[in-house]
Structure formats: C-alpha cells, structure tokens
Amino acid sequence: RFAVSVGYWKDPYIQYFVRQAKERKAPEINRGKLACYYARVHGVSYLIKAFLKKTECNCQIVNLGAGMDTLFWRLKDENLLPRKYFEVDFPMIVARKIHNIKSKPPLSKPIMESHSGDSLLIDSHSLDSSRYSIVGADLRFSSDLEEKLKKHNLDIHLPTLLVAECVLVYMTPQQSANLLKWAASTFPVAMFINYEQVNMADRFGQIMIENLQRRQCNLAGVEVCRSLDSQRERLLLNGWETARAIDMMKVYSFLPQADVKRIEGLEFLDEKELFEQLMQHYCICWASKDSSNL
Length: 294
Hints:
The protein is an alpha/beta fold. The chain has helices at residues 2-5, 27-54, 71-77, 91-103, 105-114, 142-151, 173-186, 203-214, 228-237, 248-254, 257-264, 273-279; strands at 60-64, 84-89, 121-122, 127-128, 132-136, 160-165, 189-197, 242-247, 282-290. The longest helix is centred in the first third of the chain and has 28 residues, at 27-54. It is globular, with a radius of gyration of 19 Å. The model has no long low-confidence stretch (mean pLDDT 90).
C-alpha cells in the first residue's frame, strides 16, 4: 500500500484491504523493495494481459495464494475480466477478505455488477458469483483443491491461467511439484506464472534466508530456488511443455524507460548495488501447455 501511496503504480482498491504502514525503511532498502514490487506488478500483469488478449478473455484465471490481491477489480476496470476469476487461500485469509468485501461497497459493488443469474453465494468462508469466486483451501492437497474449485464451477476445458506469487517457496519441493503436476494434467490448455526467489545458494541469498528465519519465516521450498535453470527444470519435469525464467533485473530493463525514470525519482538512492542484488534474487517464471495451438 505504501508503494501505491507514493505513486509507484495505481491501485484504488488496496486501501480497502491493507492499512498504511507507519514505518519508513532506509532509502536503499525502501527503494530496492518498492522497485522490486513495481517490476513484479508490471511483469506479472504483462503476462496476464497477454494471456487474456490471446484468448480474447474466453478463459479463466486461478490465483493461488491470492491473499489480499486486487487483480479482479483492476481487470474489471480495464474491461479485461476472464469468463471466471478464482482466488484460493487458507480459510482464515479468505474469511478476512470476504469480511472486507461485504463491509466495503467499492469492493462488493463491482462483484454485483459483473454477476448474472440468481445464485450468488456469500458466507463467512466462501464467495461465489458468476464471474468471481474465493475458495478456502490448502494448496498442498490438490484433490481437495480441485473438488472445491469444481463446486464453484471451474471448467477444466477452458484455457486456464494459474498465478502463484511467493507461494511455491513456502511448500516443500514435493508439495509444489504435486501442485504443478496437478495443474499440467488437469487443464489441456494452460499457462502457469510463478514469481519468487532465485539464486538463493549464493551469499546474498543465504543472508535473505537467515533474515527470514529470524522472523520465524521458513522457506520450505528454497532448494528449488537455486537458479533460473532449477526453476525452469521444475516446471518441465512436472508436465509443462515450455518454460522460461528471468530475474527481476532483466524484467526491470524491459519496462518503459520513461516510467522507470519516474519511479527512480520517487526515492533518492546513491548506492545501486543493494538494489541490483535484490532484483537478481527474485524471478518470474512462466510455463505453458497447449493441446489446441492457441
């Protein structure tokens, strides 16, 4: 929310989910993290919109570990909603999000506007409209996940985009492999976008891990984050036909230069080395399988 408030990108909906942080970080950490978020938002958004345009929005999106993400509302504002948009997270997170939606008209109104038919379901742990669903499930158990999604009218025959941002790294390598295998075997035409850490075997990566461990944050799947190659291999070994991975420094270099100059003017920074190291330790990977040559 702080990044939005100082102008890194526009998101009129995040204010309804996340309180403004009071604490300011050191400038190089601040800009490093915020510029990384900026590159992440733009990089993931570019891939999502490419999929939506290719399918002419005749598709579905499954946002895995969606948390307080606002993508549904932003896509609706741009007239880019897929046939159906699903979010999945732990039931406790889902309950909090639904409470916010029910109590804030700027969130509930767009759901009502996009809904057709009379079967809108909303209770404390699930929400299901014709275009948007929130499902409480544990991603480590794919059979339970599939059952719950199908109850909310998941269509396995539709082109499907699955998105996971900083999610797989909190699962063991076997658990994330099972999820990727399930997705690749369930949908004939699909794309998977994964954003998370990379190059974690070097010294900077080890410091990141130690800092997280001090905050009782365990990266159970960090061994798959050794390199861009290990990220690609995981996707290819689990049923995906093509896979690519690039670090966030590369993503940053692809962004419109006028916008990069604008955001670099938001936070003054002399020393860029820490920023570049941070960007080289996150990546976007995307994989696809396509039985119909979409």
